[in-house]
Design brief:
With 180 residues, the protein is an alpha+beta fold. It has helices spanning 2-7, 41-89, 105-155, 163-176, and strands at 10-15, 18-27, 30-38.
Length: 180
């Protein structure tokens, strides 16, 4: 220790719980060493209190973070179930979302989504009905025309024309071409 003191004018050290300081000064050409130790009860008590406060604050902070995480998870669970429901609905339009208590914002969102699905389902049904009716309305005249043409072709004999048949068969001859 004295060799350290010789190179430095002041040295801090610790012996057990006691803290100390050493310094050297020269009087009449001779070095003198002074060592002082002491136990700072108040300082150690404050240090222990500070350590306890930090420990409690860190543990409390972790508990708050965990509780917040669980609470947020509980608040977000209706949204998670809504997303799962929407993914199931994408394959089957007749399904609907659970509207839960019908009072909060999540329930209002589910009700709005269900209304939109009902409107989409009605629109798809109307479109399908329109296509079905249009198809039927187009098939009937086409079937009639094809039947008339088939009958005309079966009845038509080249070379046998009456005055009345001439007007009827002229359109058939044009439609069938010169080789028929």
């Amino acid at each position: 220790m004295t060799t350290r003191l010789y190179h430095k004018p002041v040295v801090d050290f610790r012996v057990g719980h006691e803290e100390g300081i050493g310094l050297v000064f020269t009087d009449r050409g001779r070095p003198h060493y002074i060592f002082v130790t002491g136990y700072d009860r108040l300082g150690h008590a404050k240090q222990q209190n500070l350590l306890m406060i930090l420990l409690v604050a860190n543990v409390g902070g972790m508990l708050i973070i965990i509780a917040g995480w669980l609470r947020v998870g509980r608040f977000l669970s209706p949204l998670v179930s809504m997303v799962d429901g929407v993914q199931q609905i994408s394959g089957a339009m007749h399904l609907r979302l659970n509207e839960r208590n019908r009072k909060d914002e999540i329930a209002r969102l589910a009700m709005t989504f269900n209304q939109m699905l009902t409107q989409l389902e009605d629109t798809f049904a109307s479109q399908q009905q329109f296509v079905s009716h249009t198809s039927h309305e187009l098939r009937t005249p086409l079937t009639t025309m094809l039947g008339t043409l088939d009958f005309a072709v079966l009845r038509y004999e080249p070379g046998r024309h009456t005055q009345q048949d001439a007007g009827n068969h002229a359109g058939v001859d044009q439609a069938l071409g010169p080789d028929q």
